[in-house]
Structure formats: C-alpha cells, structure tokens
Amino acid sequence: MSCRNISMVCPREKSRSPFSFIARNRNSKSNSRICFELKFSSAGMVPAAVITDVTSPSRTTSEEKVYDVVLKQAALVKQKKTDRSIHEKKLLEQRTGNISWDFLNKAYDRCGEICAEFAKTFYLGTLLMTPERKRAIWAIYAWCRRTDELVDGPIASHLTPRALDRWEERLAGLFEGHPYDIFDAALSDTVSKFPVDIQPFKHMIQGMRMDLKKTRYKNFDELYLYCYYVAGTVGLMTVPVMGIAPESKSSAESVYNAALALGIANQLTNIRQNSARRGRIYLPQDELGQAGLSDDDIFRGKVTEKWRNFISGQIKRARMLFDEAERGIAELNSASRWPVWASLLIYRQILDVIEANDYDNFRKRAFVGRAKKLVFLSVAYGKAVAAE
C-alpha cells in the first residue's frame, strides 16, 4: 500500500472546540436501562437533570439521534472491536502493516506536532498516556483539526459540498487501510488497533456541511445536534483509545455520555466567546426572542441588561454539562485522565472570564492566560492522580 502525497490542509488555531473528551451524559453511572437526560425550562435556559428510562419518549429528536449513536459506540467498546467482521479487520491490519515502521513513526510525530502547536495544554497532558494511546490521540486530533480547517481555515470561502464529499471518501479509504497522505496513515493505523468506529468521523463532516448551509438555529435542540456533530463526536472517537478503567463500575454508555457532555460544553463555551461568526449566529433563536433580543442586537454587539441575562442563562447550561462531564473522568483509564481534566478545567474557566468581562464577548476576548493554564495543568494532574 502506498500513500499519495497531496497538499495538506494546514491546521491553524481552532475556532470550535479544542480537544474534547466525552463521558456519559457526563456523569451518570446508571445501568444500561437508565440514561441521564438534560432537561430545560420552557425558556430553555436553566437546566435541570432528570433520570428517565431509555425508552422514554421525552427525549427530543436530536437527543434520540445522538443517544442511538452513543449506544452503538458503547457496544463496540464492550465487544473490543469495530463493526467490521474479524476477516475484514485482519485484512485492514495486513494493509496498514505494509507501511514501514519508520514511515508510521514519522506520521505519528507529525500529528503530535500539530497537537503540540494548537493544543499545547492538552498535548502536555497526553504525555502521561501509554505510547500507543498517546500517538492514537494525536492522530485523531490531527484529523479533527484538518476537518475543521475546511470550514474555518484559509480555503473556507472556496469550500463546496463536493469538497466535503471527497473528504468523506478519503475518510472511508483510510478506514479500509488506504490512507491518502501521511496524516491519514497515522489514523488508519490507529483504527486498525483500537475499536474506533467511522460514524463519529462522518458526523463531524456532517457538522461542516451544516456550516455551509445553515446560519441560524431555531431552538436548542437544533443547536445541540450541531454541537454534537462538531465537538461531541470527538469524545466518541477518543474514548475507545483512552480506555475505561478496569475497576470502573459504570456502564460503557455512562462513560460515553459523560464524554459527550464535555464535548458539547466545550462547544457551547466557544459559542459564548464568539456568538456570531461569518454571518452565522450560534444561539437558539427562540430563546433570543424570549429574552427580547434579535439578530441585529447580536451583530451590533452592544452589551445590555437583556444580553447579560441571556448569556448568564446560557452559561448556566454549559456549567451543568461540565459538572456532568466531571463525574465521568474518574471512569477513564488512569493514564488518560490528566489531559481530560486539563481540558475541562481550562474551558470551564473561560465561562468565569466571560462573567468577569461583564458578559462583553463582543469586544473582549475571553481566554485563560498561560500562567493560569499551567496552574490548571497542575491541578488537573492532582485530580487525575487522586482518582487512582
């Protein structure tokens, strides 16, 4: 097997989520017949948690769709294999085995360089992982970064639906052991070694398609699905690599749901930082209307009492998701917890910064400085070790 050289999609600072982990609706430790749902008030702003049976009709259309994916991914991990037949998996391993170790080492190193450049804190956290897991996480990160660049990178204005179709065709090829370039080679090798399924990757591409044609979200249900596509999927990709702790008493579904909560919380935090981008408004239209706000108010970027009240409610929603995610980290393999804790602590801190900026995310960039990141990295390490 050979890898065809093409010009890579050059990653730059990611505008969506940094690397996001997913744990069951980021918390629940329930059995396979129970799921943890997030319910919101009629205004959609103040979240409340309720436990319901998995067959409950109370889930929204988007929640049901995502939950079905979670169930499938959890089942794959339990089986310790992907949905390919054993024969197909052996063929994939044989094809990827035709690539030399030197080439694969170089491929993984290139992916690691991308992670180190654009997700420095997370990259440091991965260094405690086993070599095989660490490299696999880098490969997944590099693919996600490049995918995001298609919509938000230098070529974004020239992107067409057909280009995304070709990107998905390349994805299918690498899952079958036919990588297109050096970065694809690393991911192709990863999926041959871990029970990683193609569906979350395809769903992330679907999120990019939404960005091409959708500029408004009429309610949180629509926004939830978008957040799952572009960020929640990352957790579904990475849980099989990070691994569930052998001593964990939680179901695989609960771990995946917690990971999902972190991905969506990270994405909602990104949205709070930058509510409108490229003419798109990533806020629920019905909740904006209930708050007495309009699209024009968003584009004018004026901080009013109505805006403060609205964003305050949105921040509460994100914080609840972070809380749910926090409960799932302890269920991960001990060596994988540090980078996840770091991601959660730093992103949750961004919400505090937005509040400190008097909710002015129009003119003031909410970010966590390097010194504070190092502090959180240390705190994350302590939490990861304490959970052992």
Automatic annotation (TrEMBL):
PANTHER family tied to this protein: BIFUNCTIONAL LYCOPENE CYCLASE/PHYTOENE SYNTHASE
Protein name: 15-cis-phytoene synthase
Chemical reaction(s) catalysed: 2 (2E,6E,10E)-geranylgeranyl diphosphate = 15-cis-phytoene + 2 diphosphate
Gene: LOC140006837
Lineage: Eukaryota, Viridiplantae, Streptophyta, Embryophyta, Tracheophyta
One Pfam family of this chain: SQS_PSY
Transmembrane regions listed in the UniProt entry: 223-245
InterPro entries reported for this sequence: Isoprenoid_synthase_dom_sf (IPR008949), Squ/phyt_synthse (IPR002060), Trans_IPPS_HH (IPR033904)
Superkingdom classification of source: Eukaryota
